[in-house]
Design a protein that fits this description.
A two-stranded antiparallel sheet has the order 1-2. The protein has a two-stranded parallel sheet with strand order 3-4. A two-stranded antiparallel sheet has the order 5-6. The chain is mainly alpha-helical and 463 residues long. It folds into three domains: 5-104, Fumarase/aspartase (N-terminal domain) (Fumarase C, Chain B, domain 1); 109-357, Fumarase C, Chain A, domain 2; 361-420, Ribonucleotide Reductase Protein R1, domain 1 (Orthogonal Bundle). It starts with 13 loop residues before the first helix and ends with a helix. It has 19 helices and six strands. A hairpin with a 2-residue loop joins strand 1 (149-154) and strand 2 (157-163). The structure holds arginine. Arginine is lined by residues 22, 26, 82, 108-109, 112, 316, 318, 320-321.
Length: 463
């Protein structure tokens, strides 16, 4: 029997049921739906719409239904269009006429919006906590990298030696922005739509503030039309996950490069690499590649869902049911990505001496030579040209750059010392830069950031 059988003479076609159902995927909202219904029941009792006894019966019935859902005992029926329908049907089966009062003053429109906000707040909090774990891993790697340096790249061409710690922390700061965005998104979505009804509220004396507090929301909706049709929080979550996915993809790309024989900066652990079905010697970085590949799918979910939203008139439209699958999938893929990449990174062994050797080419210190001349009063553009000329000379005549520097009247042996391995990162002291002292200071700020993030997360995770 449908929820609207009174208005209809006929029964729904099998095509309608198959095409419009959302039960196959919105079962994930079961716990939130029970929580939402319990708050609603308490609200109905507080407003005197149902008696305390009726409320008590509904509450124990809802608890029983939750147990049935958890144990797998719950029998879904073909006509259960979605999880809301299924739970209400079962409550009515158990509690009879009192069960039939559950949906008083409520619509699935405000109900599903409430469930999904509860779900998304919690899941996004979970993603934040995974981000934090990943950042702690990066911090640990940065700390253990000590004074190891490697080439920093622009255009994927070797540019300057940078500390490996600086490299790890660069990804850590990008993740800090993801964390921040998600914490803000959680706050923005912390609005209860319950009480908005189908679209316009109710003639019954409902108390949206009461149910909002009961469900742990920070505030209630201000406009019922907006409350049932607003899915900004889904779009925003998909964007935040997409950008996090892009960051993971970039980390993945680096792991792919660094694990090649050509780079050779790291070796992957067997548990986090795959072999080839044909080529016996292969060891492949599939997790890192999928972190790159799956980010495309999450971005697809974002653009797909924005397209779903863009033409919708107020207020609820069934199109909105399309919010769940992309959201669930993006949350799932990004959470898996965070834990898989973190396993891959933490179990990899880094070849520090190979990194150092790759950065020990004197050409990577060309800017240090030019800046040394600047310190002696040579205008930068002239210094750049002098060193550029020496680099060209060195390459064309196959003469070591160090020798040319020693012999140059404006440079000499003091300048040539800049080419000694490790000197470049030691001398670079700009705050926020990749030099030793600057990275020590940066590590301090990153440690305080982690502490701040831990504090911000506590109340969110507790809920
Ligand atoms: N399953 C729907 C959704 O996910 C909620 C039901 C609202 N349906 C309706 N015909 N008003 O959005």
């Amino acid at each position: 029997m449908t929820l609207w059988h009174g208005r209809f003479e006929g029964t729904p076609s099998s095509e309608l049921l198959a095409y419009t159902q959302s039960l196959s995927f919105d079962k994930r909202l079961a716990h939130d739906d029970v929580a939402c219904s319990k708050a609603h029941v308490k609200g109905l009792a507080v407003s005197g719409i149902i008696s305390d006894e009726e409320a008590q019966l509904l509450l124990t019935t809802l608890d029983q239904v939750r147990v049935e859902l958890d144990s797998g005992e719950f029998q879904f029926e073909y006509s259960d269009e979605d999880i809301h329908t299924a739970i209400e049907r079962r409550v009515t089966e158990i509690a009879g006429d009192v069960g039939a009062k559950l949906h008083t003053g409520r619509s699935r429109n405000d109900q599903v919006a409430t469930d999904l906000r509860l779900f998304t707040k919690r899941e996004l909090g979970g993603v934040c906590s995974r981000i934090l774990d990943f950042q702690k891993l990066l911090l640990g790697l940065a700390e253990s990298a000590e004074d190891v340096y490697l080439p920093g790249y622009t255009h994927l061409q070797k540019a300057q030696p940078v500390l490996l710690a600086h490299y790890f922390l660069a990804h850590g700061w990008a993740l800090a922005r993801d964390f921040d965005r998600m914490i803000e998104a959680i706050d923005r979505m912390d609005v209860s739509p319950l009480g908005a009804g189908a679209l316009g509220g109710s003639s019954l004396p409902l108390d949206p503030d009461f149910v909002s507090i009961e469900l742990g929301f920070a505030r209630r909706f201000e406009n019922s039309l907006d409350a049932v049709s607003d899915r900004d929080f889904v779009a925003e979550t998909l964007f935040d996950l997409s950008l996090l996915g892009v960051h993971l993809s970039r980390i993945g790309e680096e792991l792919v490069l660094w694990s090649t024989e050509e780079f050779g900066y790291l070796r992957l652990d067997d548990a986090y690499s795959t072999g080839s079905s044909m080529l016996p010697q292969k060891k492949n970085p599939d997790i890192a590649e999928l972190a790159r590949g799956k980010s495309g799918r999450v971005i697809g979910s974002l653009t797909g869902f924005l397209t779903t939203l863009k033409g919708l008139p107020l207020s609820y439209n069934r199109d909105l049911q399309e919010d769940k699958e992309p959201l669930f999938d993006a949350l799932h893929q990004i959470s898996l990505g965070l834990s898989s990449l973190s396993g891959m990174l933490s179990s990899a062994s880094f070849d520090f001496s190979r990194m150092r050797r790759a950065a020990d080419s004197p050409f990577l210190c060309a800017i240090d030579l030019a800046e040394w001349l600047v310190a002696k009063g040579v205008p930068f553009r002239k210094a750049h040209a002098i060193i550029g000329g020496l680099v060209r000379d060195s390459l064309e005549r196959h003469v070591d750059l160090g020798e040319l520097v020693e012999a140059h009247p404006q440079l000499g042996s003091e300048a040539a010392e800049l080419l000694i391995p490790g000197v470049s990162v030691e001398r670079r002291q700009t705050l926020g830069g990749s030099g030793t002292e600057a990275v020590r200071i940066q590590l301090e700020s990153f440690r305080s950031l982690i502490l701040r993030e831990e504090i911000l997360l506590q109340p969110i995770i507790k809920h």
